[in-house]
Amino acid sequence: MRKKNQILGLIKEVAARNRRQAVSVIRPVPTRWTAYFLAYRRLLELRVILELIVAEDAAKALEHRQVIIGDRDAQSTARKMVECIKDGFFWNSLARFA
User: Fold this and answer.
1) DSSP conformation class of 64
2) Mean pLDDT of the chain, nearest integer
3) pLDDT reading at 59 higher than 90
4) CA–CA gap between residue 97 and residue 8 (Å, rounded)
5) Cα dihedral sign for 57, 58, 60, 61?
6) Which of 11, 23, 28, 42 is the most interior residue, by most CB within 10 Å?
């Protein structure tokens, strides 16, 4: 998700629209366990915004969508990302660690 500049832009847009502070996704450093903790905690902070982005994008016509776009590989990656965002078990598992 961190690689998708368009998603990061949508996060900032939705945060501003809802009068929330815009924060970005943190990429953890594999050698630092606290970095994973902070990255998971940040994802939990972004949960509502990410779910809103996915829901709003799904309601748009296909030619106006901004989340699942690009070539086949990019679309596949985006679909996996959307599945995680929609998955309550993912968020519960993430909350256990953070």
Assistant:
1) G
2) 87
3) yes
4) 24
5) positive
6) 11
pLDDT digits (tens, 9 = 90+) for 69-89: 888 998 898 899 999 999 999
**3-class SS shares of the chain: helix, strand, coil, % to 5:** 70, 0, 30
For 38, counting Cβ atoms within 10 Å of its Cβ (0-12 exposed, 13-18 middle, 19+ buried), the class is: middle
N residues, the chain = 98
Half-sphere exposure of 54 toward its Cβ, with a 13 Å CA cutoff? 17
Per-residue confidence band for 27, with pLDDT thresholds at 50, 70 and 90: confident
Domain boundaries, the chain: 5-21+45-97
The set of long-range contacts for 49-56, using a CB threshold of 8 Å and a minimum separation of 24, is 49/11, 49/14, 49/15, 49/18, 49/20, 50/11, 50/85, 51/85, 51/86, 52/14, 52/18, 53/7, 53/10, 53/11, 53/14, 54/82, 54/85, 54/86, 56/14
